Amino acid sequence: MWTLRAAVRRGLPLVRAACSFRGGFAPGPRDRRVRALSTFSGQSPNKGRSLTGSGGGATAGRGRKEEDEEEDEAGEEEEDEELLLERKPLLPQGAQRVFLLHPDVKWGAKKQTLTRAELQVAEAKALVHTLMNWSVEETMIVSTKTPDKKLVFGKGNFELLTEKIRGSPQITSVFLNVERMNPLTKKELETAWGVEVFDRFTIVLHIFRCNAMTKEAKLQIALAEIPLLRSNLRNEVAQLDQQGGGSRSMMGSGETFMQIQQRVLKEKEIKIKKALEKLKKRRHLLRNQRKKRELPVISVMGYTNCGKTTLIKALTGDAAIQPRDQLFATLDITAHSGSLPSRMTVVYVDTIGFLSQLPYDLIESFSATLEDVAYSDVIIHVRDISHPESDLQKASVLSVLKNLNLPNQLLGSIIEVHNKVDLVERYEPTEPNAITISALLGHGLEKLKAEIESAVLKATGKKLLTLKIKLEGAQLSWLYKEATVQEVDVIPENGTANVKVIISNSAYGKYRKLFPI
Ligand SMILES: Nc1nc2c(ncn2[C@@H]2O[C@H](COP(=O)(O)OP(=O)(O)OP(=O)(O)O)[C@@H](O)[C@H]2O)c(=O)[nH]1
Ligand SMILES: [Mg+2]
C-alpha cells in the first residue's frame, strides 16, 4: 500500500505553496507567540513534547538505542507533518488586476439576509488588497436568479460580462464573489472569459495559508483543503475520462487513478486529524496548567481587522505583538499576560477574526481552537466603530458566538468595546454599556481595565478584601503566595497591617482555617 510519503516520492504533484502577501512576513512572530503561550506552562517554547510527559529531562538511565529510536520517530513524525503541509499554490504569482464580480441574488433561498451586497463587495475588495501586488481594476454587482447554474448568470448578463471582460485587456483575472465555485463552472467561465477566475474560498484559503504561524493552524487549514482537493480530483478524472484514461486501472494494480488518489487523500486526512488530536491534547494541558495557577482568562474576539491584537498589545505592553492592517492577520490563538489595576495577573487570548461570509469549511476547521473560548472567564467583543458596516459586523460576530455553545454566564459577561474612536468625530455610542477606546492611541484603557477587573471578580467569584494581619508570623507571606496582595498599610504602633488582597473563595477558606480571628 502507498503511504503519503511514497506517493510524494513517486512524484505526485505536491509542491510548497508560495505566499505573495502584502507586507510580507515579520520574521520570528511564531517564536514569540509560542513563547507567549508557554509563559504559563513554565516550559521552554521548543520543548512542547515535554508537556505531554513523554519528553523532557527524564532520559537518565535509558539506553542509547532507546533514545535513538525516539529521535528517529520524532524525525519521521516531523517529516510526515512537513509532507502533510505540502500543497499546490492556489493563486498565480505576480501582479494581478482583478475584475471583482459580485453576483447579487435578488430572491430565493440563496438570498443573503445578514449582509448587503455593498458589504460583501467591500470585504471582497479588502481581501484582494491583502494580497501583495493585487489590485481591483473594476467592480461590478450583477444580479442573478440562477446562482447555482453552470454559468451563474442569465444568458443576457453573461454575454454582456463576456464582452466586457474580453474587451478589457488590463483585466488579468476575475474574482467571482461566491463562497465556492464548482470546478466545472470555473472551467466554463475561464474558457469564455480568457482569464483565471477565483472564488472567495480560494482567496481566503490563500490568505490563511500565508498567515498561519503555528503547526495547529497550518494543519487546520490543510484539513479544510481536503474537500477542495476531492472536488478537484473528481473534475480531473472527468477530464481524463474524456481522454479515455481516469477510470482505467493503473499498471495492473487493479486500482484506478481515481481510487489511488482518493486513498492518498484519505490517508492524508487521517494523518492530519491524528496530528491535530495530539496538539489538542497539548493545548488542554496548557489550559489545565493555567487553571491550576488560577489565572483569569479573557478572550478578545471580534470581526477581522477591528483591532483585537492592537488592544492586547496596549493592555499588556507586549512589544513583540505585531498588529497588521490585513484581514486575518491573526490565525493562531495566542495568550499574553497583563495586569489589571489591582495588579491581578490575567491572560488575554487573541483569537481569529470573523468575516460574515467566512467559508464554512474554514470555520469548521477552526472551531476546535475556538473551543478554548468556552474556558475563558470573560469575553471582550471589540468593534471597529469607524467601519461603515459596524452594526452588521456586530450581528455576525454575535451569531458566531451563539453557535459556539458557550456557557450562558460567559455570554452574559461580554464587554462590548468600541474601538478606533480616534477616527470618528465626537463619537457617542448607542449601546449604554459600551466602552469607547482607541487601542492605537491608548485612550479609554484605564476605564476598560477597571471594567475587566470587575467582570473578572464577578466571573471567578474572587473577593477584594482588606484583612487585618499581625506582622509577626506567617500571615503576610501566606497571602503573598496564595492571593494577590495589592496594598500593605503598616500600623507600627501595634505591629499589625491592613492588607488589601484579591483572594479566591477557596483560598479565603484556607486562610480562615490557618489564621482564625
Ligand atoms: N486609527 C486606529 N487604528 C487602529 C486602532 N486599533 C487598531 N487599529 C489598526 O487597525 C488595523 C488592524 O489591527 P489589528 O489589531 O491587527 O486587528 P485584528 O482585529 O487583530 O485583525 P485580525 O487579526 O486580522 O482579525 C491595524 O492597522 C491597526 O493599527 C485604533 O484604535 N485606531
Ligand atoms: Mg489580530
From TrEMBL:
InterPro entries: G_HFLX_dom, GTP-bd, GTP-bd_M, GTPase_HflX, GTPase_HflX_N, GTPase_HflX_N_sf, P-loop_NTPase. GO terms for cellular component: cytoplasm. The keyword Nucleus does not apply. Keywords: GTP-binding, Magnesium, Metal-binding, Nucleotide-binding. Residues 38-47 have a biased composition (Polar residues). GO terms for molecular function: GTP binding; metal ion binding; ribosome binding. Residues 296-460 form the Hflx-type G domain. It comes from the Eukaryota. Residues 38-83 are annotated as: Disordered. Residues 67-83 have a biased composition (Acidic residues). PANTHER family: GTP-BINDING PROTEIN 6-RELATED (PTHR10229:SF0), GTP-BINDING PROTEIN HFLX (PTHR10229). This is Putative GTP-binding protein 6. It comes from Vombatus ursinus (Common wombat). The lineage of its organism: Eukaryota, Metazoa, Chordata, Craniata, Vertebrata.
